[in-house]
Amino acid sequence: MTAPLAYRAWTGALVLVIVLAGCATGTTVTPQAIGRSRTLTVAGFNFAESSILANIYGKALRQHGYATPYELNLGNREVVEPALEKGSVDLYPGYAATELEFINGGKGEATSDVNSTLTRLNGYLSTRGLRALQPAPAVDTNGFAVTRATADRYHLRRISDLLPVAGALTLGGPPECPSRPFCQAGLQKTYGLNFKAFKPLDAGGALSKVALENGSVDIALIFTSDGVIAAKDFVVLEDDKHLQNADNVVPVIRSSVAGDDVVSLLNDISSKLTTQDLIELNQSSQLDHEDPDVLAQRWLSSHGY
Question: Which CATH architecture has domain 36-139+250-302?
Answer without folding.
Answer: 3-Layer(aba) Sandwich (3.40)
